[in-house]
Amino acid sequence: MTLNLIRSKNDHRTLSSTKRISMKHLIALGLLICILIGNLSAAENKNAPAKKSQTKPASETTTHPNIVIFLADDQGWGDLSYNGNTNLHTPHIDSLAKQGVRFNRFYVGAVCAPTRAAFLTGRYHARTGTTGVSTGQERFNSDEYTIAQAFKAAGYATGAFGKWHNGTQYPNHPNAKGFDEYYGFTSGHWGHYFSPMLDHNGTFVKGNGYITDDLTDKAMAFIEQQVQNDKPFLAYLPYCTPHSPMQVPDQYWDRFKDKQLTLHNREPEREQPDHLRAALAMCENVDWNVGRVLEKLNSLGITDDTIVIYFSDNGPNGVRWNGDMKGKKGSLDEGGVRSPFLIRWPGHLPAGHQVNQIAGAIDLLPTLTDLAGIPRPEPKPLDGVSLKPLMMNSAADWPGRMIFSSLRQRVSVRTDQYRLSHKGQLYDMHADPGQRKDLAKQNPEIAAKLNQAVDDWKQSVWPHGYPKISRPFLIGYGGARSTQLPVRDAISHGKIKRSSRHPNCSYFYNWANTQDSITWNVDVDEAGVYEAILYYTCPQVDIGSTVELSFKSSQLQGQISQAHDPPLEGQAQDRAKRSESFVKDFKPMILGKITLSKGTGLLTLRALKIPGTQVMDFRLLILNRIE
Questions:
Q1: How many angstroms separate the CA atoms of 205 and 189, rounded?
Q2: What's the pLDDT tens digit per position in 227-244?
Q3: How would CATH label the architecture of 71-234+241-347+355-408?
Q4: Could you tell me which residues are beta bridge partners of residue 520?
Q5: In angstroms, rounded to a whole number, what is the distance separating the alpha carbons of residues 539 and 560?
Q6: What is the DSSP letter of 470?
Q7: Following CA atoms 277, 280, 282, 285 in sequence, which dihedral angle do they give, to the nearest 10 degrees?
Q8: DSSP conformational letter for 440
Q9: Which of 250, 334, 344, 419 is deepest in the core (most CB within 10 A)?
């Protein structure tokens, strides 16, 4: 700072004449300087901007915040201690409720894939082409635009670590839908949770340890790398637990295997103790991993620069305490579609704030792009809205809305006060949150209004009726070098059997006749020469079968020449009886090269010669384009 000392016209003395200045004058001059500095400092403080409050509007951020999104699998609203469940302890997830904003009426799909489609696109899953959870029904249409694509276009590094469940082949693979980095599995469930085969950017690798811990390790490494690169990131962690198989490390299971539970479902006689205890143990493992990520953000110094979200994809996957709500996974009642939802952004969103207005997974794309201040291209209109006003407690005129929940052709609708079930039953959710008293006859006007809303919604999402056409699986789409065709997406003919009635993560066996075959309905988008790789098992006594892969006029033949007969895996780690398939360590075998012409048709795998009692057990076909 420069000080200008003003002297009178009659004063011809200079400061450089130090010999002529007495000690008295020096003291006086020092006092004068101190007074001037003090006055100037006071003036600067007076004119300085006021100190910012602890919670500032999200719009005031000068840089794009990082985004971390946790999505639990089959965890109910009641599977967290912050919602009153004393059967378990989830302190890290609970901390998000204390430090962030909590939505008390947040709605998702009744099953896994629909919720993911709604979250990723900001649109009702029924509008995107997602109709189920397996055999291709889990895919959204190729022209849907995702939240990852929006953030990637804005300069973010994007990574997904976990269960994708919206398609395996391009253009539905996560790498094709905006995620630079992917590690996990694309199917609806996985048959083994300890060091399983996983997909890393389209290539299969062996996992490292318990799957939820492994996914978290990879996500934290991704986050740390982006901090080193000084680049904002979106990290999506769609965990696969507490979805079955009910596998969890000993340290978590030991807490629950003999525990006396204090809270029970409204129908306690339907509870399955081992399944219930395993689910709670898995939820505590999820909480521990959430805590690891939160600590990583803190150690990297980016907690205040990062939005963290936590929610689940549907109601609980078993009968257990869920706040007296009706229904569980697969149900369109409150217990099947109401999810926990927490969002934290320190210094920007008010800590401890609770929102009671209804909201849903369709709202997350518009909300996060709004909070982050990035452009939001919308090739298709969104169904969701930005929840920012509700989070900031600035929505005094927030309009009433309806949120629709559907599973195939069944539809339920929720308003802030009422739920109309897919059977036309009307419930006052304020007075009767357990849905015990049907008010449709007592309130015919309200019931009629909501029934009409359901009819209008169906016409909006299915203008040509409910879709029943089977879409082919795409090969080589957009120049993709590799296409995975698992047994999940295939149809068996003859006496070939599937290892489970649940197609996800299944395999084919009992292949013993040359009249039997396996087919995929495919559309070759990119013609060319492809290398075919089979994943198989076969005992020594049965090697030697000749198999043929064909498409239109092209054929490829090869022989099963090496024995590979590993045992089934999973049973030793299961804490409760499973209904899904066990798995094996299937071995890849290069069958050879085949020329595929562009177009739609059946890709067929059949046996020409079977010298033993069977051809093989078969899990997966991979086609790698080489020319």
A1: 17
A2: 999 999 999 999 999 999
A3: 3-Layer(aba) Sandwich (3.40)
A4: 603
A5: 10
A6: P
A7: -130
A8: T
A9: 334
Q: Is residue 617 over pLDDT 60? A: yes
Task: Cis check for the bond before 196: say yes or no (omega within 30 of 0).
Answer: no
pTM: 0.89
Sorting pLDDT into bands at 50, 70 and 90, what band is 22?
very low
Backbone angles phi, psi at 479, to 5 degrees: 80, 15
For domain 473-625, give the CATH number. Answer: 2.60.120.260
- What are the start-end ranges of the H helices in 300-363? 334-337
Share of the chain above pLDDT 70, in %: 90
What is the length of the chain?
A: 627
pLDDT, tens digit, for every residue of 142-196? 999 999 999 999 999 999 999 999 999 999 999 999 999 999 999 999 999 999 9
The candidate with the shortest Cα–Cα distance to 454, out of 423, 430, 433, is 423
pLDDT, tens only, 115-148: 999 999 999 999 999 999 999 999 999 999 999 9
- Report CA dihedral (138, 554, 507, 250) to the nearest 10 degrees: -70
* H-helix segments, 134-210: 147-153
Band the pLDDT of 553: cuts 50, 70, 90.
very high
Dihedral pair phi/psi, residue 6, rounded to 5°: -95, 125
Longest CA–CA span in the chain (Å) reads: 123
Tell me how far apart the alpha carbons of residues 433 and 428 are, in angstroms, rounded to a whole number: 7
Domain boundaries, the chain: 71-234+241-347+355-408, 473-625
ω into 346 cis (within 30 of 0)? no
71-234+241-347+355-408 matches 473-625 in fold = no
Please, which residues have CB within 8 angstroms of residue 575's CB and are 6 or more apart in sequence? 246, 247, 248, 253, 257, 274, 275, 277, 278, 281
Say which residue the tokens 């000993």 belong to.
250
Report pLDDT for 49: 32
Residue 245: is the preceding peptide bond cis (ω within 30°)? Answer: yes
Instruction: For the chain, state the CA radius of gyration.
Output: 30
